[in-house]
Design goal:
Blueprint (H helix, E strand, L loop, with lengths): L3 E4 L5 H9 L4 E5 L9 H8 L7 E6 L4 H8 L5 E4 L5 H5 L5 E7 L15 E6 L26 E3 L8 H8 L3 E4 L4 E2 L2 E2 L1 H12 L4
Helix pairs in contact: 1-6
């Protein structure tokens, strides 16, 4: 089964369209404190011009339900909860949920059992932000584990290491942000190279 790809931290239409052209299955928009933060209006402008079958994921950190639902009106199809949100909170939302958990130790992976959401995402626990820090963790921590939901692997992934990550972890989806940037800005060639590395095809 082909590994899906989410390109996160999109802030402009050109990057979003390039990601879709090269095979991205999901586009992530960050509505939490981040250098990649986007407004509801900016996200809507991009989403309105993307194919229907591409997931539009809104990334939030400990946000209120009301704010999340209001922002979702821009055309989001999924929520990504990247804070201390409970399973009950995730269940109360109107859209499917990716629950993100940072891994600072192998023991942290056991917390994934608490979330039977649409996806669970694992990211490195190192860095100043909840995600998008460009740091990896030992993928071997996840070997031999089973999870209650399909797994999304994030954290320091780029075209040079993503195939090894997929072979080690066998995730349902791969998520990258800083791995397709140059000097903090989305790089179309890196987006293309990353998607080719995962999908093994050219367009």
């Amino acid at each position: 089964m082909e590994t899906k790809v989410k390109i996160c931290g999109i802030r402009d239409l050109e990057s979003a369209q390039a990601a879709v052209q090269y095979g991205a299955d999901a586009i992530g928009f960050v509505f939490a404190a981040s250098k990649r933060r986007i407004s509801k209006e900016e996200a809507k402008h991009i989403i309105d011009q993307l194919p229907v079958d591409v997931e539009k994921v809104g990334v939030f950190v400990n946000e209120s339900r009301d704010v999340m639902e209001e922002i979702a009106e821009c055309g989001l199809t999924m929520f990504q909860c990247h804070g201390e949100e409970t399973y009950e909170f995730c269940q109360s939302l109107s859209l499917p949920v990716i629950k993100a958990l940072p891994l600072k130790s192998k023991q942290d992976a056991l917390k994934l059992d608490e979330y039977e959401t649409s996806y669970v995402l694992v990211d490195s626990g190192n860095g100043p932000y909840r995600g998008g820090n460009g740091t990896t963790f030992p993928w071997e921590w996840l070997q031999g584990m089973s999870f209650p939901a399909p797994l999304v692997l994030a954290g320091g992934l780029h075209s040079g290491n993503v195939q090894t990550a997929i072979e080690t972890v066998r995730p349902a989806m791969i998520d990258t942000s800083s791995g397709v940037e140059t000097d903090g800005v989305k790089d179309l060639e890196k987006i293309k190279a990353f998607l080719q590395a995962v999908k093994g095809r050219t367009k």
